[in-house]
Design goal:
Layout: E1 7-11, H1 15-25, E2 30-34, H2 37-44, E3 51-54, H3 63-72, E4 81-85, H4 90-99, E5 103-106, H5 111-144, E6 148-153, E7 158-161, H6 163-169, H7 173-176, H8 181-184, H9 190-203, E8 205-213, E9 219-229, E10 235-242, H10 244-296, H11 301-325, E11 334-336, H12 338-350, E12 357-363, E13 370-372, H13 374-392, E14 397-408, E15 425-434, H14 441-446, H15 462-472, E16 476-481, E17 487-494, E18 519-523, H16 527-539, E19 543-547, H17 550-560, E20 564-569, H18 578-588, E21 593-598, H19 602-606, E22 616-619, H20 624-636
Parallel strand pairs: 1-2, 1-3, 3-4, 4-5, 12-14, 18-19, 18-20, 20-21, 21-22
Antiparallel strand pairs: 6-7, 6-10, 8-9, 9-10, 11-13, 14-15, 15-17, 16-17
Helix pairs in contact: 2-3, 10-11, 11-13, 12-13, 13-15, 17-18
């Protein structure tokens, strides 16, 4: 359409010239004419042609003068001007180009040459307009971008910066363009920055975090995204995002996280304290109950005493487990008779769970002995039975415990509580089932989350700890439950491999009778423990001298140094503790054999005294047989 055609203004004082030019160009362009320079300038006040064809020799105002006026007007200077004239001198042609023309065509000319020149310069103008718009858009983006933007050469000199980075850094644009990247970089040395630039050139791009220095000397964190362009000797375009607020938010988050972790630790302490109180109250109930039975039924004192000793051992094992949780004691696996362990636990818990719950069991006796931590396995049995009892609540109910040797057969795809296939092999299978309230799928899915509980006063560590113990023994757990239909837990502990030993019957175990001799110094601040230890040592054939703290012990040692053959000392004592006493005694007599008795756990002691310097260790509470065995090993050695 006519309105889509480019507009060409022809300026010539001769009508016949106007007519000729019009005839050549009218099919391709919209052509308008002016007969003088003044008329052309008036037209240009209302019309913007895409090109001007300008005669040189005109009355009143020559074409050269018209062109100069055009080029001085900012709104007109981009319009391309082509001179069409009969002047053929080189000086005239040079003058035309100096005035600002893009071309100079002398008469006579071929119409095809004119059309080609016109179309070529219009195309060049179109491309120039596109480039100018692109450059303007580039500068608009550059100056309005929320991120800082750099253009830099491969030596690190800044070639262009935007206003955003000027605000970020506090420098003016002029100041920045006289600087290098290394002048702003606060984290890297100049050599490191140069190496970084070389890496980006090799990779073609880079993305990293850095720290820049403001004009006032303060630092700010930036995230840098940079691209390398192999233009004009190599250039970098870098986008710099100020992440100072994000970094501070991250620090705040980490602080909150540490505070939350501390709160969790305090929560855990409450959980542990509540759990220990719960379990110890059960054990103390057994101990005090059988003590009362001894008064009422002295004939069966031996049987009652055996139950008291079992409960006391469970209490000691619980203490060891708490020390293990706190990282204060080593978890040592021993050969465990699973059948005896479960039988004992069931018998003990029958006296502690509520009377409306019937606890029955079916324990197989053909299980082999295998390596495990007895106290932890006991904790698993206890947690599962107590959990079952609590699910029954006040209603009449039943808990059934079974233990048997079972095989998981390859290809049958037996799965654990999270759907993982259980490896084939032989297992000790402990099953605890109840007819309590049961659980829905949502509760079952969250059962082993730390701190998750369905009980109003519960803290929710029991089942999480139970699963952890089972997994640490390379075992697996199954759980099936439905609301109102009870719950069944199955624990599979592997018993195959080189660690398996056939069960040794109790009648093959013989008691070792052993007697020592000589003077032992006993150092213990607890009067009751000192009384019991004194009695045990004398029963083993030793003569005993006692001290209640490290200071008394040193004084006593000076009096009997030549006679004392062994020292049995506590560690936590007033006036002078066992650690100081140990060092003082070793200084006085390096070859002196010192046995340490502590309730803090072996790990605490061995972090302060080298294991090689300790003659023997015995953890409280200890039985007569344990003390005898430690003393025998030290004396024999």
């Amino acid at each position: 359409m006519q309105m889509d055609k480019k507009i060409i203004l022809i300026v010539d004082d001769l009508p016949e010239n106007l007519k000729v030019l019009y005839g050549i160009l009218r099919d391709d362009y919209k052509v308008i004419g002016a007969s003088s320079g003044q008329e052309a300038l008036r037209l240009l006040s209302t019309t913007r042609p895409d090109m001007i064809l300008l005669d040189v020799m005109m009355p009143q105002m020559s074409g050269f003068e018209v062109c100069v006026v055009l080029k001085e007007d900012a709104s007109l200077k981009e319009i391309p001007v082509i001179f069409i004239t009969a002047l053929v001198e080189e000086a005239d042609e040079a003058r035309g180009f100096e005035a600002g023309a893009v071309d100079y065509i002398t008469k006579p000319f071929k119409p095809s040459i004119l059309k080609h020149r016109v179309s070529t310069h219009l195309e060049l103008k179109s491309q120039k307009d596109a480039l100018r718009k692109s450059d303007e858009r580039h500068r608009t983006i550059l100056q309005t971008a929320m991120d800082g933007i750099w253009l830099a050469d491969i030596q690190g000199h800044l070639l262009e910066v935007n206003e955003t980075y000027c605000r970020m850094s506090g420098y003016s644009s002029r100041e920045l363009l006289s600087m290098k990247i290394s002048d702003l970089e606060a984290r890297e040395a100049e050599s490191e920055t140069a190496a970084h630039i070389a890496d980006i050139i090799a990779q073609g791009e880079g993305r990293f975090e850095s720290m820049h220095r403001r004009k006032d000397g303060t630092l700010f964190d930036v995230e840098v995204s940079v691209q390398y362009k192999p233009l004009d000797g190599g250039q970098f375009v870098a986008f710099l995002h100020d992440i100072t607020k994000r970094k501070q938010a991250e620090k705040d988050r980490q602080l909150l996280e540490r505070q939350y972790q501390q709160a969790q630790k305090m929560e855990s302490l409450g959980v542990l304290a509540g759990g220990i109180a719960h379990d110890f109250n059960n054990l103390l109930t057994i101990i005090t109950g059988y003590c009362e039975l001894i008064k009422m039924d002295p004939v069966n004192v031996s049987e009652h005493n055996e139950q008291i000793q079992k409960a006391a051992r469970r209490a000691a094992e619980l203490c060891c487990q708490m020390l293990a949780y706190a990282g204060k004691a080593q978890i040592i696996q021993t050969k465990v008779d699973m059948s005896s362990l479960v039988t004992e636990m069931v018998a003990m818990l029958k006296t502690t769970i509520q009377k409306n719950v019937a606890l029955t069991s079916a324990i197989s006796g053909d299980l082999p002995v295998f390596d495990a931590d007895a106290s932890q396995i006991s904790q698993v049995v206890m947690n599962l039975i107590i959990n079952a009892a609590e699910s029954i609540g006040d209603n009449p109910g039943e808990i059934h415990v079974s233990l048997a040797k079972c095989a998981i057969i390859a290809g049958h795809d037996s799965k654990d509580h999270v759907g993982t296939i259980i490896p084939a092999g032989w297992y000790a299978c402990l099953e605890v089932s109840d007819n309590g309230c049961g659980m829905d799928e949502e509760t079952s899915a969250r059962l082993f989350e730390p701190f998750f509980t369905t009980k109003f006063t519960g803290r929710g560590l029991g089942m999480s700890a139970t699963l952890g113990i089972i997994q640490s023994h390379k075992g697996v757990l199954q759980c099936s439950s439905q609301p109102g239909c009870g719950t069944t837990f199955k624990v599979y502990l592997p018993i195959q491999g080189n660690e398996v030993e056939e069960l040794v019957s109790n009648n093959k175990v013989t008691t070792t009778h052993w007697q020592g001799s000589g003077l032992i110094m006993l150092v213990e601040d607890e009067v009751e423990i000192a009384f019991l230890a004194n009695a045990m040592l004398k029963q083993l054939g030793f003569t005993v001298v006692e001290a209640s703290n490290g200071k008394e012990a040193l004084e006593l040692f000076h009096k009997h140094a030549s006679d004392i053959v062994l020292v049995l000392t506590d560690m936590g004592m007033p006036v002078m503790d066992g650690y100081t006493l140990f060092r003082e005694l070793k200084t006085l007599k390096p070859e002196l054999q010192i046995i340490i008795s502590s309730g803090f756990g072996d790990t605490v002691v061995t972090t302060r005294i080298p294991t090689g310097e300790i003659a023997g260790m015995i953890s409280k509470p200890y039985r007569f047989e344990q003390l005898r065995d430690v003393l025998k090993s030290v004396v024999d050695r």
